[in-house]
Design goal:
Blueprint: E1 2-8, H1 23-33, E2 42-50, E3 54-55, E4 60-62, E5 72-74, H2 79-89, H3 100-107, E6 116-122, H4 132-149, E7 155-160, H5 179-192, H6 201-208, H7 213-222, E8 228-234, E9 241-246
Parallel strand pairs: 1-7, 2-6, 2-7
Antiparallel strand pairs: 1-9, 3-6, 4-5, 8-9
Helix pairs in contact: 2-4, 4-7, 5-6
Length: about 250
């Protein structure tokens, strides 16, 4: 069954080894440390940064693509759940290293030592983005697959997601009019009921170029009516970082 839901960021700058003086980063790291996975057997972590949708065959990767040679991550996976999800989702397994949307949360300690199934959705921001509709369709398919195959395990579904990327002059997009307002509405909706974010996902992508729309959509489909246990939100570099959980 789906036993737990969470959202975490995946910015490499949040790693203490890379930016130990980032005060806001310390708050985010602390919130991640306080996430409670004690009532789950396996974590499914959903990233928005693959060229295609699928389940990674292995949960291993690094940040060498960012020029960071000593940041490597590996976690045991649940091969049975991975295969079942791939079949139910109708997607070919991804044979290759996990993307940074998976690597960074692993390095931040998400899920502790629990087995990790790494899933990814098509990238809709940055270089060579795919259409938002493609990612949203894949997110709905993944949510349906999870609801179908998770009955034999207590599964935590974690969205690796950022919100708007235009919240201040320091942001990748600089400051974008309306982005902060969309983020405020997003946080309020997530704290109330994840299903309430449905009408915010389009503006989140269009206004703030948020990378996390796909993974957040997975939560929207699976966690309707779930109780929030609190949400930490910060935007130290003009990009919205969220840490929260639902049960």
């Amino acid at each position: 069954m789906i036993a737990h839901g969470a959202v975490v960021p995946h910015a490499p700058v949040l790693l203490e080894e890379i930016q130990p003086s980032l005060d806001e980063g310390r708050r985010v790291r602390k919130a991640i440390e306080e996430l409670d996975f004690s009532k789950t057997d396996v974590v499914v972590l959903v990233s928005p940064h693959a060229p295609t949708a699928g389940i990674y065959e292995r949960c291993e990767g690094s940040l060498r693509g960012f020029g960071i040679d000593d940041a490597e991550a590996a976690r045991d996976t649940d091969a049975g759940l991975s295969r079942a999800l791939s079949l139910a989702w109708g997607r070919e397994p991804i044979d290759g290293p996990i993307d940074f949307g998976i690597v960074v949360p692993l390095l931040l300690g998400v899920g502790g030592d629990l087995p990790m199934v790494a899933a990814s959705l098509p990238q809709t921001t940055g270089p060579r983005p795919r259409a938002l509709s493609e990612s949203m369709d894949a997110a709905r398919g993944l949510a349906d697959a999870l609801a179908t195959v998770a009955d034999a395990r207590r599964v935590a579904v974690v969205a690796s997601a950022h919100s708007s990327a235009g919240l201040s002059a320091r942001a990748p997009l600089t400051e974008v009019s309306g982005a902060a307002e969309v983020d405020r509405e997003l946080v309020e909706a997530l704290e109330s009921d994840p299903a309430r974010i449905e009408n915010l996902l389009g503006p989140l992508h269009e206004v703030g170029q948020a990378c996390g729309v796909g993974p957040l959509s997975v939560l929207r489909h699976l966690l309707e009516g779930w109780r929030s246990e609190g949400l930490t939100y910060e935007a130290p570099y003009g990009v919205g970082y969220m840490v929260g959980q639902w049960s």
